[in-house]
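Pipeline run #58 for the internal structure catalog. This entry was flagged by the ingest filter as a single-chain record with no existing model, so it goes straight to prediction. Upstream metadata was stripped on purpose; only the residue string is passed forward. Reviewer on rotation: M.T. Logging verbosity set to normal.
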Amino acid sequence: MKQFSFLLILFSAVLLAKRNHAQCTMTFGINYTVDETCAGSCDGIVDFNYQNGTGAVSMTFSPQAFPTQFGTTYSGLCPTVYTVTATDAVGCTQTTTVTINPAIPLSLALT
């Protein structure tokens, strides 16, 4: 009887997870980006928008980055192309790509 109860609970958990995933209605996008302002400064910025997520939404950057977060704005990004995944409290995920361009190095010519 214990084995049957365990299987029933496991089956219910799998169905619940599939149901939650099937009902994922979260939308996720980019409001704006700011490219690096000075060569080597890694001061790029991105601001996201997301709606209809359940509970708290976390962001994962790839390649791995540890930007400073203030609300939906992330700063301190080095120039590269990031894949960013937003995940809400029930495991709904949405992914987008963010490009932070490098600053143009300044040069000085004396005449």
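catalog note: Confidence is low (pLDDT under 50) at residues 4-20.
catalog note: The beta strands are 27-34, 44-51, 58-62, 68-70, 73-77, 80-87, 93-100.
status: ready for reviewer M.T.
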